[in-house]
Amino acid sequence: MTSASTAAPARREPELAGQTVVLIGGSAGIGFETARxxxxxxxxxxxxxxxxxxxxxxxxxxxxxxxxxxxxxxxxAVQRFFQNLAGPIDHVLVTAGGPTYGPLLEMDAAQVSxxxxxxIVVALEITRAAVDKMRPGGTLLFxxxxxxxxxxRGTGIVPAATDALPPFVAxxxxxxxxxxxxxxxxxxxxxxxxxxxxxxxxxARRKELRETLPIGRVVGPADxxxxxxxxxxxxxxxxxxxxxDGGQQFVS
Length: 252
Prior knowledge:
Layout: E1 20-24, H1 29-40, E2 44-49, H2 52-62, E3 66-69, H3 75-83, E4 89-94, H4 109-130, E5 134-145, H5 158-176, E6 180-186, H6 192-198, H7 202-212, H8 221-233, E7 241-244, H9 248-251
């Protein structure tokens, strides 16, 4: 008779142990889920947003190290926030802002300028304020989209704005090295923002995506959060764009 012994599975070390992650727009949706995921991987998290009450609730749910309420499009407020951080940080995820839809001919010059450069200007101001606080190997992680890559009636300025982000992030990565810069390009993500934009059309959109996406389900904030934490933990990744849309861009 022989006896077999079963080895205990090796414990996996948390991927972000001892690191600090700042979530710009961290009180809901992708930012909040990334905070939750980062905490599960051993990180301390700091949440920012514009709504103090929502921030406080989110911080309690994830056990955040701290919060700060400010508008990420205000350069002075961004500068003050990073200056006031007590210690070094490792990663910054920026989810603030969204695309501007509408017919091109109905947009004035100021609206066109904001739609084309708004994300880049905010990203630059956050980078300027954050980079000296960041440890080498950390990443500034920005959000873009895959939906704007298709030219269609109603998308307006969005495709042009979408195309500007990947080369911007690639160039930024060279300038801020050894801190990294990366871009996540998401399709439809089932978040409170999506719900507010679609209103009573939300359920129909979910059903359509479940029936047409190659993955057979709708992409959620936790999916994007998992990708974000992977990019944070893998220090070989910089200057790149990572699509996460369940194959939406190929079937839409």
